[in-house]
Amino acid sequence: MHDSVFKSIDAFAPEFIKFWEDVGNIESPTNYKEGVDKVGNYFLNYAKKEGWETEVFKHDIVGNVVCITMNASVNARPITLSGHMDTAHKVGSFGSPAVKIDKNNIYGPGVMDCKGGLVAAVLAMKALKENGFTTRPVRLLLQSDEENVSAYSNKATINYICSKASDSIAFLNCESTRKNSAVLWRKGCLRYKVTVTGKSIHGSRCAEGGVSAIQEACYKIIKLEEFKKEIDGLSFNCGIINGGVLANTVPDLCVFNAEIRYSTQNQLEQGKKILEDILNKTYLDGTTTFWEIESYCPSMEKSEKNFELLDKMNKIYVKCGLPTLQARQSLGGSDAAAVTVAGIPCVDSIGVAGDFIHTINEYATLSSLPEAAKRIASVCIYI
C-alpha cells in the first residue's frame, strides 16, 4: 500500500506547499491568541472539508488546541501526530508578506518550527485517505503555546494533549528534523524570574547612600555566567534584564531571568542549588533579592518505550525504502518531554528540515515536506 500512498504524497505536494505558505503567512506568536486561532481554524476548515472529526479545546488566554481525527469510528488504538502552531517571532518581524519561497526553500516565521511538520502530517493523512486507509484512527493535535512551555495556559494545553493521546500506540511529534535522525531524549528547562531591589537616589549623589539594584544583579549574573559552559549536561543562561528609570538616577529595581537546562532530575536539583546559592548571596548591603519560577519544561529522559518505537519505525522504513533514523539528543525542550513523562511511546522531530529556527533567517527545504509526509504515512500504515 505504501507505494500508492507515496505517489499520492508526491502528487499532492504542490498543493500542500501552498497550504504551508498560507499558514506561515498567518503570524502566530504564542501571546497572540487571535493569530494562533486563525492558524487552527485554517486546519479545522480543511479537516471538515475532508470529513474528519474535529474537536477544539478552548482557552481564554492562549490559542485553542485543535484535535483532528481521521477514521475516528475505527476500533483500534490510534496513532497520534502532533506539532505546535505558535511561533517565537513577533508580528511583522519578516515583513509583508511574511513568507517567501524560492526554487528550493520556504522562508518565514515558524515554517520549520513547527508549521511545516503540521502540514506534512495533514499531507500524510490526505494521501492515506485517498488510498483507502482505514486500519486505525490517525489523530492530529495542534498545540497552541508550546514555545512558552505551556506557561501561559498553566499547562492546560499540554495536559489536554497528553490526555487525548493516552491511548496511542505511537506518538509522533512533528518538530523539525535533522537528516536521518530523530530525537529520543531532550534537555529540560527551568526558568526563574529574579527581582533585585536597592535604594534610589539622584545620580549626582550616588556616593551618599544610593544602592544600585542593577549593580547587585550584575554581580549575580556574572557569577551565574561562569556556569554558561555546559558541565555534564547542566547549563545556565541569563537572557533578559530590565532595570532603572532614568539615566541620572541610581536604580532601585532590576529584574532578570535565569534559566537552567538539565538532562536528568538529579541535574535539576543540582542546578537549583547552584542558582539559589548565588541568588541568596548579597554583594551590596541594602539590596534584597527574591525570585519565582516563571516556567518549567521537564526533561525527556531516555525511555525504553521510545527506543522500541523507533526500532519498529526503522524496520518499517527499511520495508518502504526510506532512510532509517538515528537516535539523538536535543538541547531544546518540546512537548515530547511531557508526552514521555506521561508514559506514551513517543518519537520526536520527524518533521521538515531546514535551519535557523527562532531567527529571522528561519527556512525549510521544500523537498523535506513530502519526505516527512512519507515518514509519517508509512508508520501509520504498518505500525
Description:
The chain is of the alpha+beta class and 383 residues long. 36% of the residues lie in helices and 24% in strands. The chain has helices at residues 2-25, 33-50, 111-130, 156-164, 213-225, 265-280, 304-320, 335-341, 368-382; strands spanning 53-57, 65-70, 79-84, 100-101, 105-107, 138-143, 170-173, 181-186, 188-197, 201-202, 235-237, 241-243, 249-250, 253-262, 288-297, 326-330, 346-348, 354-355, 363-365. The strands form 5 sheets. Strands 1-2-6-3-7-17 form a 6-stranded mixed beta sheet, with helices on both faces. Strands 9, 11, 12, 14 and 15 form a 5-stranded antiparallel beta sheet that branches. A hairpin with a 3-residue loop joins β4 and β5. α1 (2-25) crosses α3, α1 crosses α9 and α7 packs across α9 (368-382). The protein is elongated, with a radius of gyration of 23 Å.
Low-confidence stretches: none
Mean pLDDT: 95
Largest sheet: 6 strands, mixed
What is the succession of H and E elements? Answer: HHEEEEEHEHEEEEHEEEEHEHEHEEEH
| Strand order in space, largest sheet | 1-2-6-3-7-17
> Any idea what the shape is?
elongated
Q: What is the share of helical residues? A: 25-40%
**CA-based gyration radius:** 23 Å
Compute the number of strand runs.
19
Tell me the strand percentage band.
Answer: 15-25%
Distance between the termini: 13 Å
Number of helices: 9
Backbone structural class: alpha+beta
